Structure formats: structure tokens, C-alpha cells
Amino acid sequence: MTDNKKKSKKTSSADLEKKKRMKRIAVALSVLCFFAVGGLATWTILFSGMAPSSAIVRIPSNASKEQLRDSIWKYLGEPYAKKVSRLVALRGTDLNARHGAYLIEAGMSPLDAMRRLTSGPQQPLTITINGFRLLPVLEEKVAARFDFSQDSIASTLADAGLLKEYGLTPEQALALFINDSYEFYWDASPVDVVKKIGAHFNDVWTPDRKAKAKALGLSPADVMILASIVDEESNKLDEKGTIGRLYINRLNKGMRLEADPTVRYAGGDFTVKRVRNPKEVESPYNTYLHAGLPPGPIRTTSVETIDAILNSAPHDYIFMCAKEDFSGYHNFASTYSEHKVNARRYKRELDRRGIF
């Protein structure tokens, strides 16, 4: 073999090896590109896309991954829900341990949302109590904010042993709910809610307030019932103490309270402006028929009304009638003859305005 032929053969072998090496490099680059593109796609699918708005996502007791996804979907849309639920599944969190409500803020990434749902703190919720007249209505409104039923909160408030801790009976359960705002977590139980509301009740009824009630011949429960009637009689704080003291005077004289709001409560119609035949409504709450205080409050009341009664100045009024100017204030009287004059003025104005 000549030198030229040998050289040509060596060159061909070198070229072949070079081609194989280039092919291996090309394959390796293709694999790297595949994983790079796949990784980018995974990142895009799972981690990109921000929450379009803020929402409270609730994880019920014994929730499934599908329930969590649907809860996110309801408030934040399908694409975002799918991304977050996939990340939650990848993390493998036990949802039973995450029973609660969590705030997903506008602009939060799916990754941050997953972290909030699987290991973040709950979002507290605020319950505002203000002028509820009927216990079942209050129970319905409260239960709607928590992960428990109306029946469960109703049965808790019917627990005589539990209410006895606050000096109340089940008929007086409405008294426990003093008008205020309360903070809870969504997964609170009915007992948790009642105990926190009850703790505020106990905080309000300090030894000083209890002593003032006792000096008036009343228990805290009595004051709560009386305050509920006063609140229905007037929204004028500066005369609530006078009205409260008037009713105390009637109680001390053995007179019936004869409070129109108790007739409205007994009849279940709070739109009645003019009570014409109060004795026709048979109910233990009708103070035209029954002596003393009614069995329980006729609405939730406030600390301001409680203090107005406890700090009221003594007087000898035993009658009152709404002022004929419809200002919301009342004319007070110590004698029936004086009261009849006030009542006639008011009746004339009712007739003139066509109020029946």
C-alpha cells in the first residue's frame, strides 16, 4: 500500500470519528434542550399566573383534593385553581390537618398560595352582633359564617349547664350576645363561639356593675332583659336611663311594665307602629298581661344601654308616651292624669298623620 493510500485511510477514520463525536454532542444537546424546555413548561404551567383577586379559601373538615380545587375555582377561576391544587398534591399535605379558612391575596403566585394553604396561618373572621331580635335569626346568621350548622349552635345555646356558667337560662340566651364585634377562626366549634361570647359577657359584668345592679334589686340577667326593652323603646341614649329607671319604679310598685315593644315581640310583628289591643296577644313576653320582666330579652343590647340603666338618676316617673313631635323622645309623667294629657296629644297627632 502506497503512502497516499495509507494517509487517505487515516483521514477517513478521523472524519468518521469526528462525525460520531458531533452526533453524540448533538444528541446530548437535544436531551438538554428537551429537559430545559420541559422544565420551563412545567414552571409556566404550575408557578406562573397570579391570583386575579383576593379571596378566602375554606378547607372543610375531611376535605378532599377535589373539594379544595373547587373552593379555589369558585373564587379565583379554573386555571389558577388547577395550578394551586397540583402543587398542593405534589407537596402531599394532609388536608385534614388544614381545616380552616385562608386568605389568598390578589397577585399571589400559585406557589405562595400553596404554601399559605398547606402551612400558613388562618385568616380570622369578624362577627358583628347588633340588635338581633330573635335568637333563631341570630343562630342562622352566626352559623352561616362558620363550618357548623344552625342546629348545632342552637343545641349549644339550649344547654342549661353551659348557660348557667354565665348566670343565664336557655330562655335568656340572647342576653349573652352583647352588641359588639368578635373575632374567630372559621373552624371554631359552637362551644368555642359561645365560650368566647360568654367571656366578653363576663368581662362586661364586672364586680362594680354587678354591685350597681344589686343596688337596683336586679341581677345581670334582669338588667339585660330590661335593657332590651329600653333599646326597643328609644334610640336616644340620653333618655335610656330615664326609661330604665321608670320601668324599675313600676317593678318596685308591683305594676305591670305594659311595654309596647313586648307586645310586638310576642306577636312577631316588629313593623306595628300603633299597638291598639295589647291584651289580645297571649304570650309570657306580653307585659300587659304578665307581671314582672319577660322570660328573656327581646333583642341584643349594648354596654352603653346597660350603663345608662345602672347609672340612671332616681325619679318618680311611672308613665311615658312618645312625644307628639315624632322626635323619638318621650314625655314622662308621675301621675295617670298627667299621662292621659300626654297620651291624648300623641293620639291626636297619630290620627292627623293617618298612622294606624
Helix count?
14
Beta-strand content estimate: 5-15%
Gap between N and C termini? 132 Å
Strands of the widest sheet, in order across it, are 1-2
Class by helix and strand content? mainly alpha
Can you tell me the residue ranges where pLDDT is under 50 for at least 5 consecutive residues? 30-41
Please provide the count of β strands: 6
Biggest β-sheet description: 2 strands, antiparallel
The helix-strand sequence is HEHHEHEHHHEHHHHHHEEH
Give the key terms:
two-stranded antiparallel ribbon; two-stranded antiparallel sheet; 356 residues; elongated
Explain this structure to me?
This protein has 356 residues and is mainly alpha-helical. It has 14 helices and six strands. The strands form three sheets. Strands 1-2 form a two-stranded antiparallel sheet. A two-stranded antiparallel sheet has the order 3-4. Strand 5 (319-322) and strand 6 (330-333) form a beta hairpin. The radius of gyration is 36 Å and the shape is elongated. Residues 30-41 have low confidence and may be disordered.
